[in-house]
Specification:
244 residues, two-stranded antiparallel sheet, Rhodanese-like_dom, Rhodanese-like_dom_sf, Oxidized Rhodanese, domain 1, alpha/beta, Rhodanese/Cell cycle control phosphatase superfamily protein
Length: 244
């Protein structure tokens, strides 16, 4: 396999097999194997692989990130799938996850996809040119290693993932930009809430001719309950996909 990218490698392996005896002298057969290594590329190099070398994009992200934004005409084969197991240990872990990582960062509770390699094999031959992408580059690297071990010869991987892609770099489908597909949960609206509360506080301070009262440690500002109520109502009114 030849390539114009510096990060592409060819790995030579030798294996020794049991032999026999010729005229009283034992011998062993040695075979030479050539195995193609994974080709790590940048976003710009990835565009060239697709346009010039005919690589097919395989998106290995989970379903939620894929639905937010993905490269047009790509194939979706997730490396991790939703973990819906109902054994006691999984239920506890899922509950803890959903109340923290799921709520604040929108991360789904997943497990390794046991059918990943087989799913790729059912769609592509070992000689197919495949460009693997994920959001940060970690899952695509792991997926590339699995496929390389399974015998695929032309595997490329985007090093920094879709988060490093500039807006408009690829034709995409979804409700957001490719680089923002990994952002979800309450952290995405934290800035909006802070801006609203800051505006309310600033307006109240400027419009009031009386200096704010000083409250003792035993008393509570009268507006605290209203602010908490406002935050709760604001979060409750969010679209489902923003906090999932």
């Amino acid at each position: 396999m030849t390539s114009n990218f510096r990060t592409s490698w060819l790995k030579f392996e030798t294996q020794t097999h049991g032999g026999g005896t010729i005229l009283g002298t034992s011998y062993r057969r040695r075979t030479l194997a050539i195995r193609a290594e994974v080709n790590f590329v940048t976003a710009e190099e990835a565009k060239e692989l697709i346009a010039v070398d005919g690589y097919t994009v395989v998106d290995v992200r989970d379903k939620s990130q894929f639905e937010r934004a993905h490269i047009k005409s790509c194939h979706h084969v997730p490396l991790f799938i939703a973990n819906e197991d109902n054994d006691p240990g999984t239920i506890i872990k899922r509950t803890l996850h959903n109340n923290f990582s799921g709520l604040f960062y929108g991360l789904p509770f997943t497990k390794p996809n046991p059918e990943f390699v087989q799913s790729v094999k059912s769609q592509f031959s070992p000689q197919s040119k495949l460009l693997l992408v994920c959001q940060e580059g970690l899952r695509s690297t792991a997926a590339a290693n699995k496929l390389e071990q399974a015998g695929f010869e032309n595997i490329a991987c985007m090093t920094s993932g879709l988060q490093s892609v500039k807006p408009g770099a690829f034709d995409s489908v979804g409700s957001t930009e490719l680089q923002n597909a990994g952002k979800a949960g309450l952290v995405t609206v934290q800035g909006k809430i802070s801006a609203v509360l800051g505006t309310v506080h600033t307006y109240s301070s400027l419009s009031s001719p009386i200096k704010p009262r000083r409250y003792s440690k035993f008393s509570k500002p009268p507006s605290r309950h209203k602010m908490l109520t406002f935050i709760i109502k604001f979060c409750s009114s969010l679209q489902p996909h923003q906090v999932s």
